[in-house]
């Protein structure tokens, strides 16, 4: 039995509790150009026309609870710089608040939905530099040797030049857009690294103790799949049931053998599992939910 996940493992969709389903659907359709795949009762699924990237379930009166674990942001990875530029131009056209950021290893745009859930839109740019950890702090260096902070202002004008001026800004979210990563609030970095690396089988990534953040990936060319931090407080509690935010996200294994092995490692570590219609639900040490499943 292998103790690591295959590199072609993917994230599938993120499932959120929302307070106002119709308002949230309208936002994701109109601002991010998602397609509504289905709507049944108090739930809906959206994405780029293929498998769902986002599922929403309404709990009327649900509130966002601070100083708890849960979802920091989910990140949509665009298939090209041209498409990320179109997303940026759409936000500017609508006048919707957003924060373009240059992470050196990615070009990113951050925004919040109407209920305060942060979203990242990005492309990976691993060719532009490297990140290491020195004395507990992240250190970024560009390929030309210049230092970077990892949170520099994005060159918006340069990105916008990549846009196809003929492509309509209200066109649908492009096929090939994926759920690139999930960024979690957790309670303890060591416990989280142990769970995602030793138990689930992700590749261990850098741990920045002074910045109180760490991450796991799938390979050197697929890093930063699940980053996490303790910015809500060391030993932060999980949110109460039916709070706004994360219900679970899915981890999609490429074959039945890999899925079975991952579930076996979970059970060998005496971590509770729950069989659901979507797959096998597991919770990390901070009680963030994830479902192990196969592509459908």
Folded structure, characterized:
The chain has 296 residues and is of the alpha+beta class. The protein has a single domain, classed as 2,3-Dihydroxybiphenyl 1,2-Dioxygenase, domain 1. Helices cover 18% and strands 39% of the residues. The chain has 5 helices and 20 strands. The protein has helices at residues 21-30, 81-94, 156-160, 189-200, 256-268, and strands spanning 10-18, 35-40, 43-47, 52-58, 70-77, 99-102, 106-112, 118-124, 129-134, 137-142, 147-148, 152-153, 178-185, 203-208, 213-217, 226-229, 245-253, 273-276, 279-283, 289-294. The strands form 3 sheets. It has a 9-stranded mixed β-sheet, with helices on one face. An 8-stranded mixed β-sheet has the order 2-3-4-1-17-20-19-18. It has a 3-stranded antiparallel β-sheet with strand order 9-10-11, with no helix packed on it. Strand 9 and strand 10 (137-142) form a beta hairpin. The longest helix is centred in the N-terminal third of the chain and has 14 residues, at 81-94. It is globular. The two termini are 24 Å apart. The model has no long low-confidence stretch (mean pLDDT 97).
């Amino acid at each position: 039995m292998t103790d690591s996940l295959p590199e072609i493992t993917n994230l599938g969709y993120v499932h959120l509790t929302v307070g106002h389903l119709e308002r949230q659907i309208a936002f994701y359709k109109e601002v991010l150009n998602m397609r509504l795949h289905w709507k049944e009762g108090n739930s809906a699924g959206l994405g780029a026309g293929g498998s769902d990237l986002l599922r929403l379930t309404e709990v009327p009166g649900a509130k966002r609870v601070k100083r708890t674990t849960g979802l920091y942001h989910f990140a949509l990875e665009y298939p090209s710089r041209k498409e990320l530029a179109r997303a940026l131009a759409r936000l500017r056209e609508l006048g919707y608040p957003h924060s373009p950021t240059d992470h050196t290893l990615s070009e990113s745009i951050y925004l919040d939905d109407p209920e305060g859930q942060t979203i990242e839109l990005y492309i990976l740019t691993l060719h532009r530099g490297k990140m290491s950890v020195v004395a507990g702090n992240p250190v970024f260096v560009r390929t030309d040797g210049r230092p970077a902070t990892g949170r520099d202002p994005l060159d918006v004008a340069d990105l916008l030049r990549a846009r196809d001026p003929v492509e309509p800004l209200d066109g649908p979210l492009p096929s090939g857009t994926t759920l690139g990563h999930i960024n979690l609030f957790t309670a303890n970095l060591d416990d989280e690294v142990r769970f995602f690396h030793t138990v689930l089988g992700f590749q261990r990534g850098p741990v920045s103790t002074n910045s109180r953040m760490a991450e796991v990936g799938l390979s050197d060319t697929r890093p930063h799949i699940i980053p996490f931090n303790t910015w809500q407080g060391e030993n932060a509690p999980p949110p109460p049931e039916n709070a706004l935010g994360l219900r679970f996200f899915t981890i999609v294994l490429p074959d039945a053998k890999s899925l079975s092995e991952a579930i076996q490692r979970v059970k060998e570590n005496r971590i509770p599992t729950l069989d659901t219609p979507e797959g096998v639900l597991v919770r990390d040490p901070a009680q963030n939910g994830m479902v192990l499943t196969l592509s459908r």
